[in-house]
Amino acid sequence: MILANQRTIRLHPRAPFHFDSSLHKPDHFPSSDNRWTSGIRWQTMLWKSIPLGLKFEDTGTVEEPAIQLSVWSEKALDDGYLASLRDEIEWRYNLSMDLSEFYDHFGDHPQLAPIVRRWRGLRPIHPGSLYEYLIIAIVLQNATVRRSVNMLQAMFEAFGSSLEFDGQSMSCFWEPEKLRGVSEEALRALKIGYRAKSILRVTQAFFDGELDEFALRYSDLDEQRTSLLRLYGIGPASVGYILFDVFHRWDDFRHISPWEQKIYSKMFFDQDPDDVVPVPELLALFEKDFSPWRSLAVHYLWEDLWWRRAHEPVEWLEQLIRL
DNA sequence: CATCAGGGCCCTG
DNA sequence: CAGGGCCCTGAT
Q: C12 C1' – A147 CA distance, angstroms?
């Protein structure tokens, strides 16, 4: 699909805003629906059933932030649609997020202070919808990174679309409706294995109206958690990621999976992978040190680690992530 | 060549 | 609440 119409929006994130570390997360596995280079991020987005090509360009500074957002579409977009798109991006990218209390709180923290200084203006983002995150969470389960990449790409090719804009060609997600009537066998042919069942049942929950992302944003934490856990194939690890990335719960931290346990054991206790720190002990440390911003604080430490790795290999980390 | 565990989760006993 | 099974793939 060729996207010939272009509109431009100016976004003004609340200062401080760090463009690269907010719009690019080096720990996320690469996928064909986005591309990043310093100061620019391209991505596709399915908003109100219309496939879009987006290009974010950094036109400001950390203390005086500005983003030029170009929006490509197949047909012309009206102003009302663009306004709703702006609101949604504002939410997904946390553009209005106030980091000042967080920074004040950790200004003297021995481990965190240098990191919040280095990444001043970094905020979490998830560019996609809840449904899209659920799909990603499922392909992450019990798989190596490369396999997750392959599974998502196969799904893009089978159910998504390919968008041409700004000289880029990128995959775009599908809507839940697209999988209506698709059999488990057809999905398994994409080599996603037993996850086919989870994907079908999660997708069905959407077109059956069992959960509504926009309503859930206003629900309390427990209701969000139980709604997500009700979904077949979605357990505590996936829910932990979703509460943080999709529902912006900056203090929810109650689950640590084995691979993360190894990494945290090294980060916080300098322990080797064969002698990990028990999960309750890690959780107790996070509660003591990082409440009431447990997940946000760990996000900063985590992103710092992955940016370091992007510049030069971090030996102990290389052995813990299998690509 | 065969075996194994991986960026979990469900189901069973 | 512990433990087996699950798709597929690269590492060993």
A: 18
